[in-house]
Queue: 4 jobs
Job 1
Amino acid sequence: MSQKIITLCYRKIIDDSNSSHWDKFVHEDSFLEFKMQSQFYNQDGKYSSFAELLMHVPGADKLHFLVSAAITGYLRQLNGIIPDILDNLGRRFLTFENFKFEIINSDFTDIEKHKVAINFFSKPLVWHESIDNHLLVSQFTEAETEETFTNLFQIQPFVSIHSIKTIS
């Protein structure tokens, strides 16, 4: 019997409006790191925003990677569990190994304009079926077992199927 193996992507957007402590720390520390790292690309002080740097300064797109260093400690605090996504029993169940940090918008002079995204990529899951707007999934393992433990969760905004593979 063939199985569909999927990887999910959850795009967590963090800006000044987020209320959780974890989100606020990520927001503040990424802003401070952005201000520090961007000095190299804005030595004359001509530009005031991330968008202007991207438009006018070659290599400024490296700031996504450079600023991500400021948040890796916060990601370790998650212990490999994707935040905010709960199954129908109210438990966090999605695990991740990979992420991609992205600066959406920022202004050197105004932290309220600083907006970032963390794209979390789940570990492989077996997609058993779709029930209305829910997915029934289980952790993918190579070992065959008599019983498979599943999670049923509602598809929500900023969650998508990143990749799919059918195996026999």
Job 2
Amino acid sequence: MKTTTNGRRSLLKKIAASATGIFGMSFLAKAEAQMGTPEKQVGNITTDQEIPLFSGHTKQGNLVFVAGKGAHFKGDVAAHTKHVLDELEKELKSAGSSMEKVLKVNVYLADLADYDKMNEAYRGRFGKKPPVRTTVATYGGVPGDSLVEMDCIAYV
């Protein structure tokens, strides 16, 4: 008798688990259909001959992707880094985010010899929990004669 009872219990558990899975998936599919796919949002669009070229930032869901920012004026890497970080901060604020919410930063240096001076200007700009970062020296320099360019990913 015990084998039959255990066998029935096991079968009942499997049926209950299957029903939960089916009804749960049905509920999830209905919820997704009602919410719809979130639409990509863009801000600060740069145009070339009246044709959109790229956005200063793009939002998808709760993520913000900020385009590369450079410094297009004469100056040293410290001044360029400060300017670039200020521009990132402005773009993040316009997207509803902040420097403290940055998850990832890419840093592009025109010259790897500027790494230490860039770090001095960069230090502390993202709060007590800094984002992950990749830093590379570019072959051929950064566009617009900037000594540094940065882009980032943040959340809202």
Job 3
Amino acid sequence: MQKIDINPNQMSGFGNAFSSSIGKKFIMGITGLFLVLFLIVHCFINALIFFNDGGLTFNIGAHFMASNWIIRAGEIVLFVGLLAHIFQALRLTLQNQKARPVKYAVNAGEANSKWYSRSMGLLGTLLLIFLIVHLSNFWVVSRFTGIPTVDANGHEDLYAVMALTFQNIWIVILYTLAMISLCYHLLHGFASAFQTLGWNHSKYNGIIKSVGVWYSILISLLFAAMPIAVYAGLIH
């Protein structure tokens, strides 16, 4: 049997590839695109409240998400990806601060990049605060503590929890502000992920940018419209 030698330098090189600046950005790009796909599914399910049927259709979608083993397994992958995204974002932010401890005497600002491109750390922090509140309001209730009421179809009435939560004007304001942050976060992150992963090309960059802009605006508007519509009594 042929002996296979493992070169320690190769192993360390592999580890360094992911701990380097490029490796960190690669992880950010992969996890970012995964979260982009998740937002599409999450937004579609939540948008079922616009059927305005007392939450029956929404509860069917919520029941499917809670009972499908593929979705439940995907939640684990989602949380791992989300934590990796947050962790790498923090590492990159700290790394950039250490690399430039003294700010430039002259800041070109918009000449070099958009303000939201330079504020990804702040926008991400706002989204993290929102995420904690959002998970405590809905995910923890639906997965752990349980929902005490059921709808006419016999499904747990998560819509009733949503309707009650969005009667709080401060929660509605928080969600709206968070969706504004999400929009700007996506405006930078969508195209940046493709560039980081090397999936960009001069022929398609314009398309990627346009898709990213429309995606960022529509997803954020839909998410923001839900609490506003419930609070305003437009959905019953």
Job 4
Amino acid sequence: MSDPAELTPAELLERLQRVDLPTLGHHLEQGFVSPAIRRLGQPRRMAGTAVTLALDAPDATAVNRALVALRPGEVLVVDMGGDHRHAAIGAVTAAAARARGAAGILVDGVVTDVDTLMHLSSGMPVHARGTSCLTTKRLDGRGGRHQVPVDIGGVRVAPGDIVLGDANGVIALPPASLAAVVHQAEVSDAAEPGLIRRIRAGEDLRTLLHLG
């Protein structure tokens, strides 16, 4: 077993991509984004490093600048500052993120073009609170702050945090917090199929569920 402190970011992400996200919920209490934020894009696992944008106005130019700055493997994390009416992400912006090699998009707000997002051939995972026809506008680009700590669904997300998402929800935590539990999660995942088989075979539930 690798020492958690010795895991490179790439090694940690590779291992986390194989862990069931609900398994992490057995070993962690922090970092779980509000279940009001759910997957609205392609049914793919999201796993990458956070690049943050705090949007102080419905400024599409600020969003576009953040998109152009994305690097492969990053997740664009957008804090709408409580604006749940203007959609900052749609088909074009999701395609642009994919073109930059992004691993996903996480928005504490709404998105648009949801039918296209769900069937986009690029396979971009997008997580948000819901959908809207009202969109951001091309303003002066000064309505957003790039690479600052943001609040997403009750979780403080900093640039460089790891962001994980699937159909169950989203987790965002510093790499060290996830490295500390990744081995435990792998062990739990490996044991679960056998436990389910024993339950189905009729073994005593009190013993299997550790009730004495």
